[in-house]
Amino acid sequence: MTQAPNQETNILGKFTSVVGLLGAALFFAGWIYRWSYFYFFQLELNTLDLPAQSFLIVPLQIFLGNSWAIFKTAIAFFVTAIAIQVTLWLIKIISDAVVSASQLLLNRIISATQHKRSWTAKRLKSLAEFGVGQLRSVDFLRSLVNEIVIVSWVLIVIFWLARWQGIADARRDAGQNSTLPVVALITPEDKFAIGRKLDDIFADPSLQGYRIIGDRGLFEDLRGREDNDISNPKQPRVWRLLLERGGWIYLFQALPPNVKPNEIPSMLAIQTSDKGHIIIRSPEVSKTSSP
């Protein structure tokens, strides 16, 4: 009768520990996924001020997003289980060999100094006897090392799964099969130095009063190409909305088809205006032709 509460407490304690470790692993996976995703778009995750609870939802996409993700996750953790067993087996073999060699050496030192009364011999004997006693704690150290190995392998697998999925999703969203919305951003004329005039789309806005630091070519490459243009299927120009966060709007031109694997889009960050702005979102490009 007296053991039931202890057993229930033990089970509850283990359950709490598992939930805590699972939550930490999910948060770690979510953080790595978003870090790799936004890093692809040249954005630092720490500057975006994303809610912490959102990192716990993202791992569902990493591990259970589709049938391929489930299969990849199952294979990864199966291989991880094998890697853990092999690593623990190697550690056991090495540690047993080290312990045996150390035990033999210490026993020889004790035997050699057993009947000697010099100060050096006494110190060596004392040190050897202390070493023999310390070897008894190897089992505890081995248990600690085993836990470190298991946690390390699990973190490594979660890191690479989250990183690969983050980069893969970023490449998809940067290209023609993006899940991000097509965007039309309308702002006051004096807000920034780029953009087409609504009443005269061929006229460039005045640059008077603006200054530049850095690569002027980046600005020139963008100027005159601020609107969507899908007339050339091989080089379509489509603007998409990546994120709205912290008073900033992040836009980019989707990459054209057959782009090089190492090519990434340029990001345009626009600070929201006190005078107001309009953002129109759409899952697809408008079929209305530009004037």
From TrEMBL:
Q: Does the keyword Transmembrane helix apply?
A: yes
Q: Which residues cross the membrane?
A: 12-33, 53-71, 76-95, 144-162
Could you tell me the keywords of this UniProt record?
Membrane, Transmembrane, Transmembrane helix
Identification of the protein by name:
Uncharacterized protein
Q: Which organism is it from?
A: Halotia branconii CENA392
